[in-house]
């Protein structure tokens, strides 16, 4: 009885081993066939990283960008202008003899709050924005470091054409 049990347990194990070897040989054959494709993909990714190095550097700088306080402007805590209206909640230089600067008006704009020159005007995506009004404006864009922002005055029909043309050229559109 013990001999039959041994023989029964050995046979399934041998079958599994054969299947495994067949599977691994097929996988190796597929791997050899796909090797040139994988190598080409790796090279393409490296080229993309080199192209985006400017954008990547700017993204790192943007991550370190300091936060600024809210600059309320000359009508900070006064009820003359409503703070809920965005137009009056922006920075405006205090002028005139009747408007004196008070503590409740918030912090005053000074040179020390400025951002580094490298990241001024850079979109959070890491690209510099270029306003585009027509297809000819796309010719001026460097696709490696600039991104297009379509003007708000452009209509729907022309907007679709501009987006299609930008996609062909590989230019990123922000809106």
Helical proportion, percent range: 40-55%
State the end-to-end distance. Answer: 79 Å
Question: Taking strands numbered 1, 2, ... along the chain, how are they ordered across the largest sheet?
Answer: 1-2
**Average residue pLDDT:** 77
Structural class: mainly alpha
Task: Describe the global form.
Answer: elongated
Strand content: 5-15%
Order of helices and strands: HHEEH
- Largest sheet entry: 2 strands, parallel
Can you count the beta strands? 2
Q: Can you count the helices?
A: 3
Pick out the low-confidence regions: none
Rg estimate, integer Å: 32 Å
Walkthrough of the structure:
The chain has 175 residues and is mostly helical. Among the domains are: 2-51; 67-114, no CATH class. Helices cover 43% and strands 6% of the residues. The protein is built from three helices and two strands; from the N terminus they run H-H-E-E-H. It has a two-stranded parallel ribbon with strand order 1-2.
């Amino acid at each position: 009885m013990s001999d039959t049990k041994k023989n029964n347990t050995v046979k399934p194990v041998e079958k599994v081993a054969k299947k495994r070897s067949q599977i691994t040989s097929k996988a190796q054959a597929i791997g050899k066939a796909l090797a040139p494709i994988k190598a080409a993909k790796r090279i393409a990714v490296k080229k993309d990283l080199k192209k985006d190095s400017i954008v990547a550097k700017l993204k790192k700088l943007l991550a370190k960008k300091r936060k600024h306080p809210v600059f309320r402007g000359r009508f900070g805590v006064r009820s003359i202008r409503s703070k809920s209206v965005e137009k009056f909640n922006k920075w405006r230089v205090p002028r005139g003899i009747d408007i004196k600067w008070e503590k409740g008006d918030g912090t005053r704009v000074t040179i020390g709050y400025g951002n580094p020159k490298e990241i001024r005007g850079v979109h959070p995506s890491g690209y510099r924005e270029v306003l585009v009004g027509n297809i000819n404006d796309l010719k001026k864009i460097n696709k490696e470091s600039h991104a297009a922002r379509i003007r708000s005055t452009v209509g729907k029909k022309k907007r679709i054409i501009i987006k299609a043309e930008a996609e062909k050229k590989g230019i990123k559109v922000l809106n």
